[in-house]
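Table 4 source record.
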Amino acid sequence: MSTTSGTGSEATPAGPEESAAGSGTGDQELGAAGSQLSTAPTEEPPNLPALGVIGWARWFWRQLTSMRVALLLLLLLSLAAIPGSLIPQTGIDRTRVDDFREQHDVLAPIYDTLGLFNVYSSVWFSAIYILLFVSLIGCIVPRTWQFVGQLRGRPPGAPRRLTRLPAYTTWRTEAEPEQVREAALALLRKRRFRAHRAGDAVAAEKGYLREVGNLTFHIALIVMLIAFAWGQLFKSEGNKLIVEGQGFANTLSQYDDFKSGNLFDVADLEPFSFTVKSFTGTYEPSGPNKGTPRTYETELVHSEGAYGKEKTTKVEVNKPLKVGDAKVYLVSHGYAPVVTVRDGEGKVVFKDAVPLLPLDANVTSSGVVKVLDGYRNPEGEKEQLGFNAFFVPTFGGSAVGTMLSQFPALDYPVLALSAYHGDLKADAGIPQSVYQMDKTKMKEFKDSEGELFKKLLMPGETMTLPDGAGSVTFEKEIKEWAGFQIVQEPGGGWALAGSLFAIGGLACSLFIQRRRVWVRAVEGPDGVTVVEMAGLGRSESAKVPEELGDLAGILYDQAPGVPDADDADADDAAPAASVDSPDPQAASAEGAEKP
């Protein structure tokens, strides 16, 4: 009895790919046994002399729907996305794009021509995207039908010469051939093989989940592409800064800035509103992580729809409020000192919390206080007031010498103001930032030395303007503000599901091997049954011989071997029981011969 695997002594086996291809005289003997281990379409060279228009169209379609071209398009899509990450994009930050144009007189026109300031909406990026989409569909549809046909069929019968397969073992037994075949059929079905009788052999196949995973992976890619395109076309994204106690309604006019996809409609905005009840931030007091946030959350009171019931919830970093397709993210935080401005007669012309923008991790902040209406100067003329504001939540003291915060919490708050009067140009019809002041028509208030009038204020202190122009009070109340990003991107759930299925499908296609096993039992010339077992996988792997060895060991126990005729003549004293049973690892040992 002999067992072989890989390159055995009886014959030189063909590899699985060569066997499946059926090239060469020996490989042709495998026939259907080595075919259809994969649903990958076979590529046929075009008949160049007689292609014609239809022939060339067919050739182009075959090339476009080949896996090689699909992978190439996927690579091109990845490369095409690189400029979108390196070059400022109009849809993300128009200000940076304008700055880039001012700084690069030569590159900017080239980038405009190539569409590099709007990569993801450019013609060339869309062309790659659509070609990849068509390629995947054209590749998957025929493979799916082919695989369905394979599932409805039966594993192919055994080739004439099983010795040519990569994993092979044989022995002689006194059991009847029919008995061996029945035992093999029951064993393979128990091991979850699809098995059936095919002539004098049993044919079995296993590992269909590999092709299922392969098809699932590619279908999931299509789902992800559709979800991504759908989300980009119908998405909306806006930012809003809200001070404690103030609210927000999800309407276009409420946003500080807003951008959307090409097919977005204002009516698609999710109807909801919320009020910022409080913001809570705690920080590491000492050590190498001093100032790092421990707690960073805001408490909201929100309602859905026009008459929805109010609910209280907490929004934290990476834990947004979800309302339908919309998500409300907490993205920033700062302080809003409460400032009161009075005119020369003591009348309050402005009192509000003024949000200031942080400049560093310790929330050193700057901004502007603007008094647009209600103020009259000592001469009784209408004027506007402007104050540059610089705020530190933890002042380092005069010994430090700079207005830089030493800690992000409100341990030692100080507000620095410098005063101007005149025309803020707010009525000119030109949009201007609430955090900056146009000084072209503004005049400085002067101190006794003729310098810009400015002062450091503690909470509760007042700065009196020169010449009876009024006063500014830094109130003891200091509010906090939270910055929110409201994102509405339909298709996010489909994209997530597609990515999960893609990972699962890829894992199946990588770790599961599709393989076939044949067991042939025939009566030899001397009347003793000869059992042959062979296995074939889609790709070379030690698992196929190992599995075949395990199956052979179990089947051998049910149909034990007898000595070969040559062995009996050579040693008459050797009893039949002395013949070794097939080692479960015998089928995985290359060129192994067992007496």
